[in-house]
Design a protein that fits this description.
It is a single chain. The protein is an alpha/beta fold and 380 residues long. The chain folds into two domains: 14-39 and 283-379, Aspartate Aminotransferase, domain 1 (Alpha-Beta Complex), CATH 3.90.1150.10; 41-278, 3-Layer(aba) Sandwich (Aspartate Aminotransferase, domain 2), CATH 3.40.640. Helices cover 40% and strands 14% of the residues. The chain contains 15 helices and twelve strands. It has helices at 14-24, 41-52, 65-79, 94-106, 123-129, 148-154, 177-187, 217-222, 229-232, 247-260, 266-275, 280-283, 285-299, 328-338, 367-379; strands at residues 28-29, 89-92, 112-117, 133-138, 159-165, 193-197, 223-228, 241-244, 315-319, 341-342, 344-345, 358-362. The strands form three sheets. Strands 2-8-7-6-5-3-4 form a seven-stranded mixed β-sheet, with helices on both faces. Helix 4 packs across helix 10. The N and C termini lie far apart (50 Å). The model has no long low-confidence stretch (mean pLDDT 97).
Length: 380
């Protein structure tokens, strides 16, 4: 039997590849973004309580009501922004499912979707498997600043969606208020939907503020915001996230969501809802990760790697041009095999594999792991 692939150019993700290589070579794994310390005991206990208290059958399609209310309260508290818990928020199986479902609910064949590269690797296949056309805008290391005239020139009557991501994976940069205002201006009076991937909203450093799409009234009216509890509560393996949007967009989303997953792990939803009653559980993340970033960077300050401190996310990009001009995929594999330290090469997220000789290191790790990783980096 023969079939024609809908994604002929897609292989296995770099995250799977690099984590497998790290395991094979017993390397420290700073590649795929996940913590190597336990998730909170209190949260684990709350999920166990939920199981023992009967939360073991299907959750409502849009999510457990306590969790929807907790999420809505968070938007009121942090951004003074109102999302109706039952009509404008849906709990998803991680942000990845939210992104895929948003794209498949709205993108028809030949619709154009603008994305900024380097881009998180699920965006483009989600667009293409639905018949859409990706319109890439390549940003440049080390600042990854957006040229808004270029964005204006790429918007056309075919533009159906623009996907943005701040704090940004993989570069660790954040968008300013001015960037958001530019986006708001360019999309005003259009039918363009904005997908604002905000999975790292609680991880912003040096006193900067996260510029959520919900803070800009016209943007909010056309935006889906996606979020991931895995990133916020150090449990990426639970695969729970959510999205928010105005009701007229969310009702379309749910038409697809109900046949995509129907609903998401119920005891974990209830446990997270109870845990979120204390806002410190997510508000403390900035300083928690800033300490890790600062420890890691102070330990490698004498190394031959160059860097600009990450502004947000739990990723740090390091430039190795003083060491070698080897291709970044080769260099990342070489570091894993010879030096026992795994990272992620950025070229895989760029247009046509553009290689800036930079690697991404995840610092959501114990201090002990960061110290060992820094020792290795200082020897290279
Ligand atoms: N968007 C970005 C930018 C990410 O880094 C990730 C990875 N965690 C996701 C979406 C997907 O999140 P989840 O693990 O909740 O599916
Ligand atoms: N978001 C994580 C990262 O950037 C990985 C997610 C995945 O493995 N799909 O490393």
């Amino acid at each position: 039997m023969q079939h024609q692939s809908k994604l002929p150019n897609v292989g296995t993700t770099i995250f799977t590849t690099m984590s497998a290589l790290a395991n094979e070579h017993k390397a420290l794994n700073l590649s795929q973004g996940f913590p190597n310390y336990p998730s909170s005991q209190k949260l684990n206990d709350l999920v166990t309580n939920a199981m023992n208290n009967g939360y073991n059958q299907y959750a409502p399609m849009a999510g457990n009501l306590d969790l929807l209310i907790a999420i809505s309260n968070k938007y009121e508290l942090l951004y003074n922004s109102t999302y109706h818990p039952e009509k404008e928020i849906t709990v998803t199986a991680g942000a990845t499912q939210a992104i895929y479902t948003i794209v498949s609910a709205f993108i028809k064949p030949n619709d154009e979707v603008i994305i900024f590269k380097p881009a998180y690797d699920s965006y483009e296949p989600s667009i293409e498997v639905n018949g859409g056309k990706t319109i890439p805008i390549q940003l440049s290391a080390p600042d990854y600043k957006v040229d808004w005239e270029e964005v204006a020139s790429k918007i056309s009557s075919k533009t159906k969606m623009i996907i943005i991501n701040s704090p940004h994976n993989p570069s660790g940069t954040i968008w300013s208020k001015d960037d958001m205002l530019q986006l708001q201006k360019l999309t005003k009076d259009t039918n363009i939907i904005v997908l604002s991937d905000e999975v790292y909203e609680h991880i912003v450093f040096d006193g900067e503020q996260h510029q959520s799409a919900c803070l800009f009234s016209d943007l909010k009216q056309r935006s889906f915001i996606t979020a991931s509890f895995g990133k916020t509560f150090h449990n990426t393996g639970w695969k729970i996230g959510y999205c928010c949007a105005p009701e007229f967009l969310m009702s379309e989303f749910r038409k697809v969501h109900q046949f995509n997953v129907f609903s998401v792990n119920h005891p974990a939803q209830k446990g997270i809802a109870d845990y979120m009653q204390d806002s410190e559980t997510y508000l403390g993340l900035n300083s928690f990760f800033q300490q890790k970033r600062d420890l890691f960077l102070s330990l490698i300050s004498e190394s031959r790697f160059k860097f600009k401190p990450s502004q947000g996310t739990y990723f740090q990009v390091l430039d190795y041009t003083k060491i070698t001009n080897e291709h970044d995929v080769d260099f990342a594999k070489h570091l894993t095999k010879e030096f026992k330290l795994a990272s992620i090469p950025l070229s895989v997220f760029n247009e046509n594999g553009k290689d800036d000789n930079v690697l991404r290191f995840c610092f959501a790790k114990t201090d002990e792991t960061l110290i060992k990783a820094a020792e290795i980096l200082c020897k290279i």
